[in-house]
Amino acid sequence: MPSETLWEIAKAEVEKRGSEGDGLEIGEKSVFFIGSKNGGKTTIILRCLDRDEPPKPTLALEYTYGRRAKGHNIPKDIAHFWELGGGTSLLDLISIPITSDNLRTFSIVLVLDLSKPNDLWPTMENLLQATKSHVDKMIMKLGKTNSKAVSEMRQKIWSNMQKDHPDRELVDPFLIPLVIIGSKYDIFQDFDSEKRKVICKTLRFVAHYYGASLMFTSKSEALLLKVRGVINQLAFGIDKSKSICVDQNKPLFITAGLDSLSQIGSPPIPDNDIGKLHAHSPMDLWKKVYERVFPPKSTNTLKHIKDPARDPQYAEGEVDEMRIQKDQSVIILS
């Protein structure tokens, strides 16, 4: 008998809900991890699920789940964890896990590799734009059948920011929870202080503009525990942390809605140079300033993607043999 596939296990898990807990409602949320290639997304997921196993490269879109007990004789909450591999090379797959049906219980976690600052802005920009575009489409679709749900989503996101916050008219939050995690802080902390300042201020602006929480992490157990707490809040509704650290000489930790443009300050560039950049929006200004310090390197995001058909961890004897025969026949015909 062949072993069950991951999809069959997931399907059985969902179907099982109907027979558990004598009709009590089971909490069910989804968390979607996107971000830098080899940035540590899998490591964070495994840590949150208490799985002591070495992380494997994520080639496309991967799924796993976790369960958490709420109390004695109460059904466990279920959290669906999705992870997009390949950095920015597989943007089309973003539309698979995000649907109008699960939008109200969905969260995004963007993991950015702080040790590669030249790749940071293009990775962040491409992933956030693609994700926001699809989320907006799903919002419109949901609004046609359930406008009340969309209204409630807007109210919930805006509730993170106080009604008298001076930046309410200057930001454009995601309508689903967004968390930005800067990974590999242990390498980043040894950067020149001026470079750290540019990265910290830029990420604070982007996170504040999109209504996101922002935090830095590394292999440090203390930092991983903080991240785990934030992910548990998204996945299982655990109480949200209200702590804050904006010191660029320490790992940043800023919960959504607690920062401000006045605290972040202007982009780190002389005032007489700002006009020369010809930026058409605040976000564009921060991008131009950032890329003056860290010019983008990657021009071809596909060139580093490994062919999964040749990866030994996915070996299938009969299928691989047929593939070899097909490839050889193509060579002969050509």
UniProtKB/TrEMBL annotation:
Keywords: Cell projection, Cilium, Cilium biogenesis/degradation, Cytoplasm, Cytoskeleton, Developmental protein, Dynein, Microtubule, Motor protein
GO molecular function: dynein heavy chain binding
Superkingdom of the source species: Eukaryota
Protein location: Cytoplasm, Cytoskeleton, Cilium axoneme; Cytoplasm, Cytoskeleton, Cilium basal body; Cytoplasm, Cytoskeleton, Microtubule organizing center, Centrosome
GO biological process, one term: intraciliary transport involved in cilium assembly
Pfam families (alphabetical): DLIC (PF05783)
One Gene Ontology term, aspect cellular component: cytoplasmic dynein complex
UniProt similarity note: Belongs to the dynein light intermediate chain family.
Full protein name: Cytoplasmic dynein 2 light intermediate chain 1
Organism: Vulpes vulpes
Lineage: Eukaryota, Metazoa, Chordata, Craniata, Vertebrata
Gene (name only): DYNC2LI1
